[in-house]
Amino acid sequence: MPISITVRHVDILDDLKDYARAKAQDVVDSFPGVERLNVILDKQRHNNTAEVELQAKKRFRAEAADATDDMRKSIDQAFEKIEKQLRKRSEKFREHRG
What we know:
It is elongated, with a radius of gyration of 14 Å. It has one domain: Double Stranded RNA Binding Domain, CATH 3.30.160. It contains 2 helices and 4 strands, in the order βαβββα. It is 45% helix and 37% strand. It has helices spanning 14-30, 71-97; strands spanning 3-8, 34-44, 47-56, 60-68. A 4-stranded mixed sheet has the order 1-2-3-4, with helices on one face.
């Protein structure tokens, strides 16, 4: 399952890339239907933006982004949003199958 980390407009230390990769791997381990996950880290003036794009089985696609003054905080909040979307979808399928 490919996890890609893209950095725009800034040189980011390897520890931040490893941190984002670890968060991505946690999502993949928690939700086995994930086929592809992209993390985009960007800096524009005072905003550090983290975007997460996810593609899963059965044509499910989710996107989340967050911008704060701290890159780790942006990464955490973007992954929280993605996990929330995945939990909601999982619950919807469980309720439907009943």
